[in-house]
Write a structure and sequence with these properties.
Length: about 220
């Protein structure tokens, strides 16, 4: 048999609907729109130079992810959270992430250790260089690693649809201060060390404390 040459796969281009969904999600997460801001199909259609159909399709997905709120007779608004809603979201996040990190360390410890360590090293670089936006993206990614390596599809689906986007948006808006980043980095170092040691009990305790601190910190920015 002749040796086959490596053949590069064709990458399917994004549809307009996928591109609009990704862009609008990114614009909400990265603070292009304010929390609670009203957005309209006409406004976004002009902004993205597309018809209203892909905007409507994006609305359906982003409402399911909790990033927008569609109010009858009032319009569509970027999400905002009361203190009570933030507490409920933090409780869901804790339940999912604590289960995820336990499963990930039990099922995929070596790849988890490798990727968490590499991610943490990049966080240190961003903190040292003052790249707050880069740091927050890596922060979000580090927590996603727990979910990805848990190998639990329904857990991952719930986390992606209910938790990840909203906390990423909160980090972008309210976690830019150097003092907060220093505190965050210290907490993530503890997490990294526990994961590298394979200590599930220590990792879950540190993660629980980290999420609890985040809840208290963001409560100061909650609406109402």
């Amino acid at each position: 048999m002749k040796a086959q040459r490596a053949i590069q796969q064709i990458i399917r281009p994004k549809s307009v609907s996928e591109a609009v969904l990704d862009q609008l999600r990114s614009d909400i997460v990265t603070n292009k729109f304010e929390l609670g801001q009203k957005i309209s199909e006409a406004q976004l259609s002009e902004l993205y130079n597309v018809t209203k159909a892909p905007i409507r399709a994006a609305y359906i997905r982003l409402e399911a992810e909790g990033l927008i709120e569609i109010r009858a007779q009032a319009g569509t608004f970027v999400f905002n959270l009361s203190a009570e809603e933030l507490q409920a979201l933090a409780e869901l996040r804790a339940a999912l992430e604590l289960q995820a990190i336990s499963l990930a360390m039990a099922r995929n410890l070596s790849p988890l250790q490798r990727e968490v360590s590499a991610n943490y090293d990049e966080m240190v670089k961003c903190a040292d260089s003052g790249d707050a936006d880069g740091y927050q993206k890596l922060d979000t990614n580090l927590h996603m690693l727990f979910v990805q390596h848990a190998n639990s599809p329904f857990l991952a689906e719930t986390y992606a649809s209910k938790v990840s986007g909203r906390f990423a948006a909160l980090r972008t808006r309210f976690s830019q201060q150097k003092k907060h980043i220093e505190h965050s980095l210290a907490e993530h170092k503890g997490l990294r060390d526990a994961i590298m040691a394979g200590d599930i009990d220590a990792a879950t305790k540190l993660l629980s404390a980290h999420i609890g601190y985040s809840q208290v910190y963001y409560r100061g920015f909650a609406k109402g």
